[in-house]
Write the structure tokens for this entry.
Amino acid sequence: MKKAILVKDLFVSYHGNEALKNISFTVNEGNLVGIIGPNGAGKSTLIKALLNLIKKDKGEIQILGHSIKEMKTKVAYVPQRSNIDWDFPITVLDTVLLGTYPNLGIFKRPKKEDKAWAIACLEKVGIAEYINRQIGELSGGQQQRVFLARALAQKPDMYFLDEPFVGVDVTSEEKIIAILKELRDNGKTVVVVHHDLSKASDYFDELILLNKELIEYGIVEKVFQPEVMRKAYNNPFHSITNLELKI
Amino acid sequence: MMNFIEGMIEYEFLQKALTTSIMVGIICGVIGCFIILRGMALMGDAISHAVLPGVALSYMIGINFFFGAVFTGVLTALGIGFISQNSRIKNDVSIGIMFTAAFASGIILITFMKSSTDLYHILFGNVLAVRPEEMVTTLIIGVIVLASIYFFYKELLVSSFDPTMAKAYGLPVRVIHYFLMILLTLVTVASLQTVGIILVVAMLITPASTAYLLTDRLWVMLYLSAGIGVLSSILGLYFSYTYNLASGATIVLAATMLFALAFIFSPKQGLLWRKIKVFRKETSI
């Protein structure tokens, strides 16, 4: 199996405050990986560091054996919903068309076949009837599906999603996770920042448990042990008791 | 109205004023769309004020004020970014500190120049006295601005809407930001004669906001905003000529009037239709 992500001795800080300390792990290709951990554990920071959106202090990152700089157009990123201006004058179709930009290069506009492809991606996520709506007119779940369609439109080798299930209805959540699993079955690597522990074991093959340091990484059964989880979540709160009941 | 049209045919100065105002209406309208969508209205105000010391310096050295304006405009933009990135000072405050400093230096520099009418014209514009070489400057700037937006439309769209995605796939979002700042200073220079430094921000944000209330598509917004800018310029010039008022002020108020109309009557976003929609909903329950 090929190595999808290789991280070695990664350190990241914000204004001198350490956000990630000494992180090392390798993810093999074709895995659906969840990044979990308490608030402020550096989950989003880790994704952003992997994508070179923020500077790292130290460490090595490889995406499919290359530096991220060479792989920029080969990875798709779905940002947190709260980071988007939903009043922006852009339609659903035009939002998905943005996904074709990385492969178009400068000065080139999307053509007919790009549009057809964008519509195909919208059909895949089940939003095709809304293509001419302004994005703010959709529900939270539909908006998230539009952004997944945008990622699909990019035809990347790897997907990074930041909290895709926040403020999303059940139908959308099921649809999104089904598509992510399908992508994984087709050999793509999918990395998801996730905070809802109750569903983590159904959704992911592997988990990265984070609290500024890497607490544990591996298959779900290995990470989802009460004693391991406690190391990350210092105070014993309800999701952990739920977890114990489940196991 | 006939008077205005007759004057237009008869007087060359009025023709020049109209041509210049129309050009300014278009470029301010177009660049203004990106300014308001990126939440940079205050930045637009700042950069336009920051052009003043550059203009004064250019007068003193005797070069085209285009160069001085771009120099101090961009310097201020860099200063604003530097302060907000390297301290706990928030961006809007940093903008306030830097542009007032630049503007104050400009006022002092201008007092060293011969006459105070110069200051008045730079601050408030006087389109009826526009000179041919200033028209050429405006035209050149207009071509640069429109060409930049045409060629980089895709990049401007994605970096305005989702800068994180833009950065993730390798667009130099910071370069795009400063590029837009440069275009902004150019537009300010082009608008000096028409509306002046103080009011140019209105031409940047008011027609663009009017267009924003009327459409959900960026490219439509760009055309609408340019059109509304042109209409404001013509209306403003008419009032300025007919009632002998300062052209900058009448143009800006014409733009405000058009904004008020859209604010009330816009089919989707207007106050009136929103009220009607709420009323219908309430009565239907």
